[in-house]
Automatic annotation (TrEMBL):
GO terms for cellular component: plasma membrane. Its main location: membrane. The lineage of its organism: Bacteria, Pseudomonadati, Bacteroidota, Cytophagia, Cytophagales. The keyword Transmembrane applies. This is DMT family transporter. It comes from the Bacteria. The keyword Magnesium does not apply.
Amino acid sequence: MRLTYFKLIATVFFWGTNFAAGKIAVQSLGPYSTAFMRFVIGALLLMAYLYKTNGKIPSLAPKQWGLVFISALMGVFLYNLFFFSGIQYMPTVRASLVIAFAPITITLGSWLFLGEQVSVIKWAGIALSIFGAAVVLARGDFSSLLSNTTWGLGELLIMGCVLSWTVYTLIGRVALKTIPALSLSSFSTLIGAVLLFIPALQHGLIERLEQSSWQALAAVVYMAMTATALGFIWYYEAVQKIGATKAAVVGNLTPVFAAIIAVTLLGEELTLTTIIGGVLVLAGVLLTTMK
């Protein structure tokens, strides 16, 4: 069980670095080409590992392919179009905060549609971790979260990430009852890459690749290897072993890691509020995962 949580936290760290890597890649490649290149590389890595693990490409029943397609549509195609488009219109910190709403929607969805029990302690842990994320991102000044209160295009796009990821997580919970995590991750990534190809081609995929910087290409490869290949496998394993709600709450570490990356890569100051907020997030995670 400890290994499961370690892999999940590592996955969340990869997602936290995704904001910085995505910003770098989008500057040269744009949102559509960035998403496509990330997942076509990730799909090749996952399919190769799937073949090596099983000695063949596993076959699925028609009903299982339906679940895989929905996972690809929500977790790969829509989520990444929303994500890479949204981070163009808003700061990384604010985007991280909006995505921090995902545990709430996943918990509600698990409770409403999957019959997952949510205790008072779990609700308290969710609330505490959300509050901790807000402390980190607001740097102790909560009025800053309310500035420019009208939600713009960026906020709406990132909220689309939250909703699509919620459906992806819940569908994954159902699919994992009959489909191994590696098969589900590999096939959904491959189908998602195929879905992303047309919009990427329509928005100048070839031209953007020819003109892209090495930093953008390196960022895409990094996202494909970590947040995509390893991340998809480990996240689905965690959902299967510890449940959608617990996996989602650990995901609240994403804005904490995003803030740390901002400090190390962008030279921002590591403040006391960042440390306090990180402790609150960890406390919320512990409350939610305790028996």
